[in-house]
Amino acid sequence: MTELRDAPADNGPDAVPAPDARVKTQRQVPRISEVRELLQFRAPVLDPVARRLAGALTIGDLRRIARRTTPRSVFDYVDGAADEELTVRKNRAAFRNTVFVPEFLNPVADPDLSTVISGTRIAMPLVFAPTGYTRMMHHAGETAVARVAARNNLPYALSTVGTSTVEEVRDAAPTGNNWFQLYLTNNRALNDELLDRALAAGFTTVVLTIDTAVGGRRLKDVRNGLTIPPSLTLKTFLDMSRFPSWWINKLTTPAIEFASVRDFPGSSADVAALLFDPGLAYADLEWLRATWPHTLLVKGVLSPADARRVMALGADGVVVSNHGGRQLDRTPATLEALPAVRQAVGPDATVLLDSGVTHGQDIVAAIALGADAVMVGRAYLYGLMAGGERGVERALEILRSEYQRGLQLLGLRSTDEIDARHVRPPFPLPGGPAV
Ligand SMILES: Cc1cc2nc3c(=O)[nH]c(=O)nc-3n(C[C@H](O)[C@H](O)[C@H](O)COP(=O)(O)O)c2cc1C
């Protein structure tokens, strides 16, 4: 066995002499030009929102700001998930434990982030997911998100339970690639009306959500006594003193309601009950396919069998989603479910993935395992809560720069070059062990 030893002291004639305390440091008069270069004082940012957002380097930072600026029950409504929140942790872990395999010495100065979804080129593989009650998170609401999406050439999906109408979104983002997320109800007149309005407003895609036969049990909301719209109780009144600007904005902007179905008779509880229809069946999808003339995606698919069935009924693609862990807890992580779904539907179908995307490099992993693009929900809602429209823009900037840097460090020149060989997921792939 070789023993590790310190190198012997070299006391030969050329050895560097030991330090001598008497050797003087050479000094000079400071040069103004050098001092000017060293001084990096910047004008202070006086706008508190801009200051907060500039300091946010990750989606996690935006989440921390959102927690400080939004009433607890509203923050928990966004951040929380169903039951024991097992699925939400699984979603994150699948991304975190996927290892990247880079290729070096490819020129990657200006990678092309864009991709094509349903025949339309978009700036990067990202879609703003449908989220209900968005004006509750911040008064700027859905129209702010739609504007950010349009400005950046990305699709925005408005929820059936959005707090802005399809017409308001169209007016806010007339050039946007606007999608409509549909909850089919057992009321045909209402379904027809929603589709007619989405069509008339120029929406390009309908996303049918199928994982909401009943509402998931989100314990934080139950414990916080969250009501939609938020109501004034003693607890919320006390809350006001901690979040005055949120409450002032809420009380001085139009009421938070299910905007697209606002004319439907009944209380919001009646409408909510109608929207979660446990009777939804495959025949309804057939009807929808026959009725909606443009792109139709089905959101909430987790198994190859379901993916094949919805494609056989004429869907153009699927969204591999567990609703961000907000519906059935204990489902597989979406990243894990993705490869088998892609294999089942073939290369031509549109496959999106959501649930747990909080880093631009999560997008790389999803694409490597078969997605065409991801949807993000909470990531942009944290931005919205942290700083309204500018916060959504900041969330996108963070995801985009992480995605771009991920491509470059992997040695890739474009989204199209991402391939299964660039990732090692922590789970076996269909038809073989983990690569
Ligand atoms: C506050 C909130 C509200 C949501 N509302 C809807 C909705 O109305 N319709 C729908 O299909 N999905 C809804 N979702 C699910 C998202 O579309 C998406 O599937 C999910 O947020 C993805 O997970 P992520 O938040 O980890 O990105 C909602 C999600 C959140 C966080």
Account of the protein in words:
- This protein is α/β, with parallel strands linked by helices.
- It has a single domain (55-424), classed as TIM Barrel (Alpha-Beta Barrel), CATH 3.20.20.
- Helices cover 42% and strands 10% of the residues.
- The protein has helices at residues 32-38, 48-54, 59-69, 72-79, 86-96, 134-137, 141-151, 166-172, 188-200, 219-224, 234-242, 244-251, 268-275, 282-291, 304-312, 334-345, 360-368, 378-410; strands at 99-100, 115-117, 120-122, 126-128, 156-158, 178-182, 205-209, 295-301, 317-320, 350-353, 373-376, 423-424.
- An eight-stranded parallel β-sheet has the order 4-11-10-9-8-7-6-5.
- Strand 6, helix 9 and strand 7 (205-209) form a beta-alpha-beta unit.
- It is globular, with a radius of gyration of 26 Å.
- The two termini are 37 Å apart.
- The mean pLDDT is 91.
- Residues 77-78, 129-132, 159, 161, 181, 209, 299, 321, 323-324, 326, 354-357, 375-379, 381 line the site of flavin mononucleotide (FMN).
